[in-house]
Design brief:
The structure holds 2 protein chains of 2 kinds. By secondary structure, chain A is mainly α. Helix content of chain A is 41%, strand content 10%. Chain A has a two-stranded antiparallel ribbon with strand order 1-2. In chain A, β1 and β2 form a beta hairpin. The chains are: A mainly alpha, B mainly alpha. The interface between A and B is large, with 92 and 90 residues. The complex binds protoporphyrin IX containing FE (2 copies) and fe (ii) ion. One protoporphyrin IX containing FE sits at the interface of chains B and A.
Chain lengths: 221, 475
């Protein structure tokens, strides 16, 4: 190397120092944003739900409420809308029981490895449908309730999860993962809670026009 | 089998431990490809092994074997250059070898449990013993802890050898970067009921590995390899390395935001993620230019007597320069803005990017390092590409490009039909999966996967035989 560096642009120590500063600055900014985000995504409380305070991730007792996903003019995309109370598996769940059920559901989702076929919040594998808003999927209406012979959305889901091989909808089927009735309830609670999370409008235009598309993609009658 | 690769020409402890890691890496690479082929077959014939060895199991082993073989090859490469760079024998080498055996045993148990036990009941015990169920980080908690201990030993080897010996720029970057790389793993080692929180920290491991610390690692390997293979000048290479660190960390750390668009996190991540991740291709262009410039210069100056000491190794490094830029830079940039990502998020498009990026940025250069290992193991001065080397690099690269194109087409269909037209959901998903062009694309992916696999067989053959042949030719 030249005895004296002619310019900083070819000076190793200049670049080393710059690399350290830039890295340090980016790290500090990330940590600061992380603190802010932690506050915003920690779970809300049951009191928030009762007072109608919206949280990005609501309390587990959100399973006691009707959940919808509607266009918000203000935000320019769909957002979860938490409505009136409705029974979940025929009853209202206490704070403690709802939390325990969600805990069981989350544990089951991991130990059965849902994420290596499905996506959750859009992350995971791409072999099976995204589960972010699965609770709200129109398929759990007449179609699956008819197939499983159940009269509510949650019971149809729980039945399907325990015996997916009995209710095929396509050649690609979900396998039987030896899910117990209790675990199935937990999973349904987990999915209902998942659908109440504010995902900034993902997925967009959820399940809108399958029938139109099948009819030939035209609205003319 | 792989034991055939002799290590008696190796002159130092670092190289010997490095070779141990390379051997296991190749075996895991084979497992990765086989599992990928099973999963790809299931896309085309869904009844294949249904209920026996389901897609989730094949895919889990596919991506875990991927991460683990790459970590093995990275650790191997680090050991390999450690003594050479510092001028010192590895400090506590015995402990390092013990750690290798412990890690290899642990990984074997994890893989066997994945394959034979597969899933457990919904309890904490399953998370601790069987399967953590979080993409890429499925290894159960006991194994996480084991991995941390082994990595600490590895780090101690590197750190104390560094302290004792020469402190080159390459080693300075290596020591600092490895600490960050190892530390990040801790962010993935806890359980929470809050899935948004879960994914927030999960991405700290995944993204800050592949788009920050692993990239810097590749920078250090490329720097070392350029000095070794083509005699590039150390001052220039090391100056470039610091510039790369600056750009990679400057963009990659906050680029993390591109995974926080839709997981429950606040809207400001749209701007942060878009801005910084859009800058991520810049260092990849720089690395590309750097490698090609040095390579071209070396060829030009010496005219008809090129001084490349390791032909196949260098070919893989050049493929790395292209692949990193294409797979991570271009394919990554495609879907990194929230306006695009709202539709592409979690589709075959993501998979196309995942394949080309992991292959282009990491598989390539790590294979290059294995050739370096073979050269050292046989003590040959010049390793020339054989027929097998050429078949390997051609078929593997062609196969990967083919799979990427197929998946990009599949992703395009999926984005338009499932997402834009039908807004996601169960029926929307299957409507897109059953489109004829989508189905064809999945078939082509399988075919190109087979091409990749044939290339891989050539690669193994070559690694096993090239050293001996070169040695015989030199004698
Ligand atoms: C070598 C470097 C890289 C590797 C190995 C890599 C790998 C991956 C993988 C495997 C995924 C899928 C994760 C999952 O399974 O959910 C992913 C997602 C993503 N990557 Fe990269 N990547 C790299 C660099 C980049 C760069 C430089 C960019 C942007 C310029 C980028 C943008 C993205 C985005 C936006 C996603 C999210 C896709 C989605 O929403 O589904 N990546 N990457
Ligand atoms: C024989 C060749 C291969 C085949 C047939 C294959 C097949 C597959 C399949 C079917 C999946 C699951 C995708 C999904 O969930 O829809 C997958 C995922 C993945 N594979 Fe491969 N693969 C092969 C080679 C490779 C190689 C060489 C790499 C990297 C070096 C790789 C990296 C990945 C990654 C990162 C994912 C996760 C992608 C994501 O989540 O976005 N694969 N592969
Ligand atoms: Fe990323």
């Amino acid at each position: 190397m030249a005895k004296e560096n002619l310019s900083v642009w070819t000076s190793i120590s200049f670049w080393r120092r710059s690399a350290a500063w830039v890295t340090g600055f980016a790290t500090i900014l990330l940590i600061w944003l992380t603190f802010d985000t932690m506050g915003q995504i920690s779970m809300g409380t049951d009191a928030d739900l009762q007072k109608g305070i919206t949280k990005r991730v609501p309390a587990p007792t959100v399973i006691n409420y009707h959940i919808d996903y509607k266009m918000s003019e203000k935000r320019g995309h769909e957002v979860p809308v938490i409505g009136k109370k409705e029974p979940f598996f025929g009853k209202e769940w206490s704070v403690k029981d709802a939390a325990a059920l969600l805990h069981l559901g989350k544990l089951t989702s991991q130990s059965k490895n849902c994420m290596d076929c499905h996506t959750l919040l859009g992350n995971g594998a791409y072999y099976a449908p995204d589960l972010t808003k699965a609770w709200l999927d129109p398929m759990w209406g007449a179609t699956m309730q008819g197939m499983t012979g159940k009269s509510t959305r949650e019971e149809a889901m729980a039945e399907f999860l325990q015996h997916p091989e009995k209710y095929p909808t396509h050649a690609r089927m979900m396998p039987n993962l030896k899910i117990t009735p209790k675990e199935a309830q937990g999973l349904v609670a987990f999915l209902k809670h998942l659908s109440s999370i504010d995902t900034n409008g993902f997925p967009r235009g959820f399940s809108k026009t399958v029938d139109q598309f099948k009819a030939g993609g035209t609205n003319a009658h | 089998m792989l034991i055939n690769i002799k290590s008696n020409s190796l002159t130092n402890t670092g190289q010997r431990i490095g070779l141990m890691y390379f051997r296991v890496a190749i075996i895991l690479f084979a497992a990765q490809l086989l599992m990928g082929l099973i999963a790809a077959t299931q896309f085309v014939y869904p009844s294949f092994l249904y209920g026996i060895f389901d897609f989730s199991v094949a895919r889990m082993v596919h991506i875990n074997a991927l991460v683990v073989w790459m970590l093995y090859a990275m650790i191997g490469a680090t050991y390999y250059m450690l003594t050479d760079e510092t001028g010192e024998e590895v400090v506590m080498a015995g402990l390092g070898k013990l750690a290798f055996w412990v890690l290899t045993l642990a990984i074997t148990v994890v893989v066997l449990v994945f394959i034979f036990v597969q899933i457990g009941p919904g309890t904490e015990k399953s998370i601790w013993l069987i399967n953590e169920g979080r993409e890429y980080l499925e290894a159960p908690r006991w194994a996480d802890i084991g991995i941390v201990v082994v990595v600490l030993i590895f780090y101690a080897n590197v750190f104390f050898t560094f302290l004792k010996g020469r402190k080159t720029g390459i080693m300075q970057v290596m020591v600092a970067n490895l600490l960050a790389l190892a530390g990040l793993y801790l962010a993935g080692m806890f359980f929470t009921d809050n899935i948004s929180m879960d994914q927030y920290w999960w991405w700290w491991v995944i993204h800050l590995w592949v788009e920050a610390t692993w990239e810097v690692f590749v920078g250090t390997l490329a720097a070392y390899a350029l000095i070794k293979f083509i005699g590039a000048k150390r001052e220039i290479v090391e100056m470039w390395l610091w510039i790369e660190v600056l750009m990679l960390f400057g963009s990659g750390i906050l680029g993390l935001g591109h995974h926080y668009f839709w997981i429950g996190t606040p809207e400001y991540w749209w701007e942060i993620g878009a801005l910084f991740s859009a800058l991520e291709p810049v260092p990849l262009v720089a690395m590309f230019v750097h490698v090609l410039y040095d390579w071209g210069k070396e060829q030009g100056i010496n005219g008809d007597k090129p001084t490349i000491t390791n032909g196949p190794g260098m070919a893989w490094i050049v493929t790395n320069a292209f692949g990193n830029f294409l797979g991570a830079g271009i394919w990554g940039f495609f879907h990194t803005l929230p306006q695009v990502n709202i539709y592409t998020h979690g589709t075959q498009f993501t998979s196309a990017h995942g394949h080309l990026a992991f292959f282009g940025a990491y598989a390539t250069i790590l294979i290059g390092m294995m050739y370096m290992g073979v050269q050292g193991a046989y003590g040959v001065k010049r390793l020339k590409a054989t027929f097998n080397s050429k078949m390997a690099i051609t078929l593997i690269t062609f196969g990967l490009l083919g799979m990427t194109v197929a998946l990009t087409i599949a992703g395009y269909e999926q984005v338009l039909v499932e997402r834009a037209e039908l807004g996601g959901g169960w029926q929307a998903f299957f409507t897109a999966q059953n489109l004829p062009w989508y189905v064809q694309a999945q078939l082509w992916r399988l075919i190109m996967g087979l091409v990749t696999f044939v290339g891989f067989i050539y690669l193994v053959l070559d690694l096993l035989t090239i050293g001996k042949k070169a040695k015989a030719a030199e004698a």
